[in-house]
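ok so I'm stuck.
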Amino acid sequence: MSVALATPLSQIVLSPGSAMTVSGLTWQHYQLFLAELGENRATRLAYSDGSLEIRMPSKLHEIVNRLLSKIIFALAEELGLEIVDLGSATWNREDLDKSIEPDSCFFIQNAELVQGLNPEIPSDLSPDLAVEVDIAGGSDQKLAIYQMLGVPELWLYRNGQVKILDLRGERILELESSLAFSAVSVERRCIIER
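replied:
not stuck anymore, here's the structure
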């Protein structure tokens, strides 16, 4: 069985802040789409149980993502923690029929396991911390993907605020302090005005 689109994925142009969803895919279809799109692209992908979301980040989205990444690096430096930034690397788990490209992701507690320019990362090792910037909506579906992939902590930016989420249990919990940076607590303030 093959999937045919009227327009090849590589020729579809999404405006910043928009998204499209393709449903009814197999894991093999998803892998073919990944190969067609290539690695040098601005879009972010999320795949779960046959549904693929392709999202084009906006400028504001990227500004917030970079700001949060800088904060994470500053915290790691201040606390003397080693950190490995893998950006929006694709996290695939065929056995779970899930894949995601976070806005940013970091190894902190497990940084020593992923050293070097091309580290061999075990398929069951997920980032210690991921960042998801939700400007246009749609992050709720992604939370379950992060949770299934075993990402323990997610910093979610939504409506001008950052929430620290604990994804380790069956329920997603909002935390007052970070798992990766135990000295960091959340103060409810708007960090970026629209």
